[in-house]
Amino acid sequence: MRIGVLTSGGDCPGLNAVIRSVVHRAVVDHGDEVIGFHDGWKGLLECDYRKLDLDSVGGILAQGGTILGSSRVQPAHLVDGVERARGHVAELGLDAIIPIGGEGTLKAANLLSEAGLPIVGVPKTIDNDIASTDVTFGFDTAVGVATEALDRLKTTAESHQRVLIVEVMGRHTGWIALHSGMAAGAHAIVVPERPFDIDELTARVGARFAAGKKFAIVVVAEGAKPRAGTMAFNEGGKDIYGHERFAGVAQQLAGELEKRLGKEARAVILGHVQRGGTPTAYDRVLATRFGWHAVEAAHRGEFGMLTALRGTDIVMVPLAEATQTLKTVPADRYTEAETVL
Ligand code: F6P
Q1: CATH assignment of 139-276?
Q2: How many angstroms is it from 325 CA to the middle of ligand 1?
Q3: 2-138+279-323 and 139-276: same fold?
Q4: Which residues are bridge partners to 307 per DSSP?
Q5: Which residues are annotated as a binding site for substrate?
Q6: What is the CATH number of domain 2-138+279-323?
Q7: Ligand 1: distance of its center to the CA of 222 in Å?
Q8: Which pTM does this prediction carry?
Q9: Has 151 been annotated as catalytic?
Q10: Nearest to 199 by CA among 241, 230, 157
């Protein structure tokens, strides 16, 4: 069998672990040939690739980023993208393509699959918002990075008796905010699923100071917004790929809370540090299992599917189903967290 693998969209700790696993399972166990397309779909569309053998994936398990590179170019962005992809798949004699990516990548994968290309998807995102899988690799690493940052920020907040508003990633969902906030014992968690009320937030943080505490930590997901009409708010705009370009919710909250509470407030934006660096053991294992199962699905001819974690099992889920909704933070998870804030 000849398999093409690519990584597309925002990078994520664990991508290299998937690539390594695909190569090991395919080359060693099945005697397949594997090629890696450079910079995501762009590599497939421009026929830019290299052969992947055991040597080329040696030592990459613990490496962050992706040895193949990534880009936000999706086939749908190019008018003749699907036909070009089809042409290159035929020219290269590919029996399967394994794209590893998030929401946008999986939608593109579904488009190509519906056009008849042999696709087996692997989900990734630090945001953990892909509905078909219980967990995505990268999430555990991102939560670990954010939790460590929050632990560190507590000591400086306390020294200066400040309110620190810490912005974590999460365009549409607050999984990183919820988990890191719970793990670090934050004093308020603000998520996109639940537009915040600035009066309530001020009261919550104010009550802490009134009780004699000297500092407060608020974790906010980058995509969080105020309840309509409760606060002047700049939502930002869109980048050239149609992704939200946020105007900085932490900065805006810091200004508002400082004014309302009469306490010094600072915004800290963790940004891409959450995506960089070595994956945790959990993410390496999940990524490795996804890669292994993607190769198996290709050998069974199970195309148009996506690897997913359900409980402790890896199962295959239709790509079409996987790209329909996002996995948001359920209200009861937020309620649980509120008790311990
Ligand atoms: O989808 C993952 C994610 O980390 C989002 O939380 C974030 O909004 C986005 O990627 C930022 O991506 P970039 O700045 O690389 O386009």
Answers
A1: 3.40.50.460
A2: 18
A3: yes
A4: 316
A5: 125-127, 162, 169-171, 222, 266, 272-275
A6: 3.40.50.450
A7: 10
A8: 0.96
A9: no
A10: 230
